[in-house]
What does this fold into?
Amino acid sequence: MNSFLHMLAITVIDPPSNIRAARRPRGTILRRWLGVFGGLLLACAGTVRAEDGYDLWLRYRPLPAAQASLYRSHAAQLVMATATPIELATRDELQRGLGGLLGQSPALADAVSGDGAIVVGTPSSSPAIARLRLDTAGLGREGYLIRSAVIAGHPVTVVAANDDVGALYGTFHLLRLVQTGQLLDKLDLRDAPRLKLRVLDHWDNLDRHVERGYAGASLWDWQKLPGWLDPRYTDYARANASIGINGTVLNNVNANAAILTPAYLDKVKALAGVFRPYGIRVYLSVKFSAPIEIGGLKTADPLDPQVQRWWRAKADEIYALIPDFGGFLVKANSEGQPGPQDYGRTHADGANMLADALAPHGGVVMWRAFVYSQHNNDDRAKQAYTEFKPLDGKFRANVLLQVKNGPIDFQPREPFNPLFGAMPGTPLMMEFQVTKEYLGFATHLAYLGPLFEEVLKADTQARGKGSTVAKVIDGQLDGHVLTGMAGVANIGTDRDWTGSDFNQANWYAYGRLAWNPEASSRDIAEDWVRMTFSNDPAFVKPVVDMMMGSREAVVDYMTPLGLHHLMGHGHHYGPAPWDASGPRADWTPVYYHRADRNGIGFDRSSSGSDAVAQYAPPVAAEFNDPARAPEALLLWFHHLPWNYRLHSGQTLWDALVAHYTRGVEEVAQMRNTWARLDGYVDADRYRKAASFLAIQQDEAQWWRDASIAYFQSLNGLPLPAGYRPPAHPLSYYESLTFPFVPGYP
It folds into this structure.
């Protein structure tokens, strides 16, 4: 019975090619197969698992029989040491992965005794690898080799590294090759991370609310820690290790000082113990006023000796509990958070004080450059540069300045942040937002790989052509050793982790690009689709194409031609370009679009706020000229009349209407693409994605109609010929309120 069910599972998950051909496009024959065997599957529930997204890209579902047989010839034995926690985690992953994919796990052996062994380890842990004398120079601690070799006359596959954690990363790469149907003959792969710190930032509060989280509550059940370690913590660590993430910041940058109290540090210690076998260090966001709030001091002045002693003692306390603790993330003097400027000190004074406390233990400070003051009336896009550029070279060696990808706030499209390339004496750490605060929350399909890639490939020209953002953050441009990337996590307690299956791709792409910031977002998407859904080319290509165009669709129906921050106030759900309310001007959409009867856009040219001057001269000259500026960023840098002619010959108004409409049409096309793929994947995940695409189309139409209705109310212009008017009057869209949307801080 079990063997029959195994065969049936393979057939249902990846039916024979003749069935796949016959059932397109509706999957009729597959549904008949499911109907015939549905009763048997229900009778044996627990043998065949439902697909609910929990397994992410580590599904390890059985491969077709012929393919599995071929791979089994390469995986007859597993030869590796199992003396350390990381080695045990590596062994468990290989046995879990190959057992699921191939139907049997390789037998654990002390030495190669036949063909088709997998040999994993380091020269010090594996005599077999030591005898091969492989060139592991330049791999560092985390790099690895995957190579076809011969040991004792037997062909083997070797995963070799200088350290256990490198072998773990290599193991995940080997499993990816199997999952995506790659050949294992004549392997000669060499890989190492380009960035030292590859960190997820969780904006999770101690009450388990997740700020800007759209996938349920926080993973961290602080009330039950340290006594109860949810198995989900281990699966979280496995998923991160599989894409090379090596750090996690457990709590919100809007930090609660209580995280540094003994009771919570014991809980942090417990989580660190779960993550350690997967090469992941824990970090904490700290509140700058903690010496006052939990330390009993009268001040948090970074130059006060009492304050310095308090932080040194706190660092000693943390490292006594967690010897491999990573360090602190700090948001200071931004959005009302306390910081060194409260005492007339600089960001460098505050960061260096914390860095000095951590330095004896090898810890780092990640100091966020997302700062703006309500007392500064200058263009908000300029404020981070204005505050930090004069501090270049004044930070300690163990300080990273964590800089958002753009100068405002994780918009669907922004120019690259002008700090990249402008601070050669300071290591800058990229901060991306993986959670979709401004891109439709969990239900909109918006693959962010192209957004990340666009920023990383942007040429700062700070040291001449080719001075890309990627080369700034990986240390190439200015010779920095301490490097990193941070991603604001999109993870919660939803069964699928991220609120939808397609949101998982953003977590995956972030990790892969943190490992190699010059990787292709399309190649990454293809790997993810194959590992998450199916290797069938008839499924893979249309889904990858759909993903690659999805972010541009969001830009079109939300913020075309360089418009930005048009979302509803506070919650950022839905359009509200009319909103002028709020405690400060730069929290309102009207501050950013500046539309009136005559034109639209924020003038950041040399005749406006002169934000262009913060870029290297060649880039500034391009951005400063509306005829040369990229049309995708035109209204970011220029306030232009509605009848301004674009290169296409269209007026600005006609082009805006066309972009808004095209965004809706692009979502409709994504729905049509997905509708043709019914039957290629399991019914539950197919149905959820289809439902979410329907939501997205409705909300894209809402965005299009509300935006056009508002801007038309200002300019009084007719719609271009052939375009439908909004479905409702402007007053209808203005009347909508959303006080209870998820992720609202």
Q: What stands out?
A: Residues 683-715 form the longest helix (33 residues). The two ends are 53 Å apart (CA to CA). The longest strand covers residues 144-151. Residues 442 and 499 are 5 Å apart (CA to CA).
